[in-house]
Amino acid sequence: MITLSVNGVAHDLDVPSDMPLLWALRDTLAMTGTKFGCGQALCGACTVQLDGTAVRSCQTSVGDAAGAEIVTIEGVNGKVAEAVQAAWRDLDVVQCGYCQSGQIMSAIALLSDNAKPTDDDIDAAMDGNICRCGTYQRIRAAIHDAAGKLA
Amino acid sequence: MLRTDLPVNPLIPRPATRGASRRDFLKGAATVGGAFVLATFVPLGRGPLAQEAAASGPPAGIFEPNVFLKIAPDSTVTVLIKHFEMGQGITTGLTTLVAEELDADWGQMRYEMAPANPALYANLFFGTYMGTGGSTSTANSWTQMRKVGAAARAMLVAAAAKEWNVPAGEITVAKGTLSHPSGKTATFGDLAGAAMAEAVPADPAVKTPDQWTLIGTRLPRLDSFAKTNGTAVYGLDIRRPGMLVAVIRRPDRFGGTVKSFDATAAKAIAGVVDVVQIPTGVAVIAKDTWSAMKGREALTVEWDDAKAETRSTDAIFASYREELKKTGLPADTRGDAAAGIAGAAKTTTAEFTFPYLAHAPMEPMNGVIQLTDEGAEIWSGSQFPSIDLYVTSAVLGIKPEQVKINILISGGSFGRRAVPNADWTFELAAVAKAVGRKDPVQLVWTREDDIKGGYYRPMFLHAVEAGVTADGKIAGWRHKVIGKSIMIGTALEQMVVHDGVDDTSVEGVKNSPYKIPHFAVEAYNPASEVPVLWWRSVGNTHTAQVMETMMDELATMAGRDAVEFRLELLSEHPRMADVLKLAAEKGDWGKPMPAGKGRGIAVHESFGTRVAMVAEVTVDGADIKVDRIVAAVDCGIAVNPDIIAAQVEGSVGFALSSVLRNAITLTDGIVDQSNFDGFEPTRMSEMPVVEVHIAKVDAPPSGIGEPAVPLLAPAIGNAVFQATGKRLRSLPFDLGTVG
């Protein structure tokens, strides 16, 4: 039995310790806001926070996540998260929306570390998150907008 | 008297006999409506309120709401969306059309995906088929959905007139409130029950453009909230009690089949419950996705490649070049191309190659199926429900009406979810049949399955010979197009294949709007086991690159400006000319660029929409950086300008990686790429600034999901030529291979 703390709630899971956190969240806990895109940490759709750091849950084993505070798109909150989600909605960033859980988790991590990111900072922080619909122009604008809301 | 203790029930029985008159049908609806006083159902079928399809009645035992619109006691208005939402914003767009005519407040509008029911929810451009594609969703629904809103509004007004004992003509409706000069007001919810008893108007008038308050404005998307907090439910997010997960081991080579397999090790993996053979491979069934994947890794399969594609990419292109020595099928013939070229002052020959491309939507293919006593129930991102219903029933040996499909939104498609043979729905049904139990089963494709799984944009090769006259006009143009037909051999063949020529192979060249007096297009249909499919903008993905690169090349050869050269040839296509001029003006056409930078332009029509695009690039060695894209679009009346802009921005982001690097290649028949490392979509740091200008026209809406995609490659290629003098033709662009 492995205990995971997800969005402030402890869950006892009867899963192998090498199971990726992604599948524990999606299959065992039925928390499907975190998405499967590539399984190889190439696309960022599965991004969650582990003790405040953005990680790819498809390459983080349940064993490694045990003991950490895991935050997913369903549970993320606070000023930065609210500003990011509001900016995403104000600018209608989403198209298919499938990658946006991961985009938002990465953007929150960026703005938590860097209150006023430059375009280069955004490139560096967000290049690991693929959006096949190509919403990057609006993601960039929304991050700047959220930074403005937080200032 | 309004009751509030009953839930809104969207199920409404219909008369059972086909051919029932409209009046009979409406009486039936109204009688039922009396029993469900909380809701107004406006049953409007195909055509101008045609009821024949609706009146045919639901198959026994299948749940089918036959409505486009519901009004709840709290005045929320729910529009049932007959088209597939894959990100293009159609849920917002169709809801806008209803809200406009209803004079609703945008805040009270909601949507639901309509279930798979072709009799009620056909694409009016696809005959009796329910399906989404070809950038037709807004265009085919334009009149239909406005009349749904107008009819419901008239029924609400009629109900208010009776209740208030005033003439209907004195009642106004605005932002969801009905008012009378006497001071009486009511909400939609107040009148929903009474309105249900009113007759549906036969042919309600719709507003004139000057009366619009919602169409043409920037309404926020209805799906932004759920897609930013993790609550939006995609097919892959379906969780059913007792659900099992299946992954499939497919052959390494297209056309390969299972010779034998050993499941011993796979079955030893914890969580694996079954291993079954299906026509396309071997399925591993487990209690969760991770266990299914581990089980598949442990599986040993021996393949029979006797009929498989075993060639490499280079060999396939070599076979194309050999085939072109023969005469092709005539696709478009004007004047005498050979004579025109013979009389030219200058001529050129050019070859363009295009690789296989994967769609790679972010949500891989998936679906959930459950066998039931009645038949089967599916939850999936079904883009072409008519085909999915048919294929599922054929696999399971039941009738289409015994299949219920719950349609989910999807994480992209770009064409991949609408397949003439319903490949992934076929597998879903085949797994259910092979497993033979009533537990729900979810089929999951991994990214590797997706990238290696075929159904690619076909490999194409174009060979063009053309020339200009001494006074700078096009003298003649001979054009050969070769690539595997998407449609030949499918259920949809008769729709688009004429005299052996698949229109989807030559669209964009055939019937080119350019006034070229001597023009000959020949088509060739080579065979291959590699399954091919439309990829966002279909044939235009390659034809626009050839046409617009050649136009640029011929303008240069004629010593003329690229815009002026095109405008002369578009004299009979003013809307094309107008977007070209708009893009040139907004895109600073003709202004000087610094060394190492270039500006290129292209114009193309597809799916009834005209788009012109200016690209600005910086070239450093073999590296191409796209700095800025300026697009001008004419897609008719702009229902939601912001969503149109988003589609064009997104088309640039989507297509850019196909211009710069993406290719699916084969080595001895085996796909060389497997994930986003070998087939890498555009990333944030590569995204250019995109500016979108929408032409103001008074014409019915056409599509915008696809038509901006074809422009990107030629605009960039022509810009690179301006910067370097090097002519890029084949995709993906590789400056290292061009002299």
Task: Provide structural commentary.
The complex is a heterodimer of chains A (151) and B (739). Chain A is an alpha+beta fold and 151 residues long. Chain A has helices at residues 21-28, 62-65, 79-90, 100-113, 119-126, 136-150, and strands spanning 2-6, 9-13, 47-50, 53-56, 69-71. In chain A, 40% of the residues lie in helices and 14% in strands. Chain B is of the alpha+beta class and 739 residues long. Chain B contains 20 helices and 29 strands. In chain B, the strands form eight sheets. Chain B has a seven-stranded mixed sheet. In chain B, strand 2 (69-71) and strand 3 (77-81) form a beta hairpin. Chain B is globular and about 80 Å long. The chains are: A alpha+beta (151), B alpha+beta (739). At the A-B interface, helix 1, helix 3, helix 4, helix 5 and helix 6 of A face helix 19 of B.
At a glance:
The complex is a heterodimer of chains A (151) and B (739). Chain A has helices spanning 21-28, 62-65, 79-90, 100-113, 119-126, 136-150; strands at 2-6, 9-13, 47-50, 53-56, 69-71.
Q: Would you spell out the secondary-structure blueprint of this structure?
A:
The complex is a heterodimer of chains A (151) and B (739).
Chain A lengths: L1 E5 L2 E5 L7 H8 L18 E4 L2 E4 L5 H4 L3 E3 L7 H12 L9 H14 L5 H8 L9 H15 L1
Helix pairs in contact in A: 3-4, 3-6, 4-5
Chain B lengths: L21 H14 L4 E2 L10 H4 L13 E3 L5 E5 L8 H13 L6 E5 L4 H4 L15 H28 L7 E3 L2 E3 L5 E3 H8 L48 E6 L7 E6 L1 H4 L4 E7 L2 E6 L2 H9 L2 E5 L8 H11 L5 E6 L2 H6 L3 E9 L11 E6 L4 E5 L4 H12 L6 E5 L15 H13 L5 E4 L2 H6 L7 E9 L5 E10 L9 H4 E2 L2 E2 H4 L12 E6 L15 H18 L4 H8 L4 H13 L10 E10 L2 E12 L2 E12 L6 H20 L5 E2 L2 E2 L17 E6 L17 H13 L15
Parallel strand pairs in B: 3-4, 8-18, 16-17, 20-23, 26-29
Antiparallel strand pairs in B: 1-2, 2-3, 5-6, 6-7, 8-11, 9-12, 10-11, 13-23, 14-19, 15-16, 15-18, 19-20, 21-22, 24-25, 25-26, 27-28
Helix pairs in contact in B: 3-5, 5-6, 11-12, 16-20
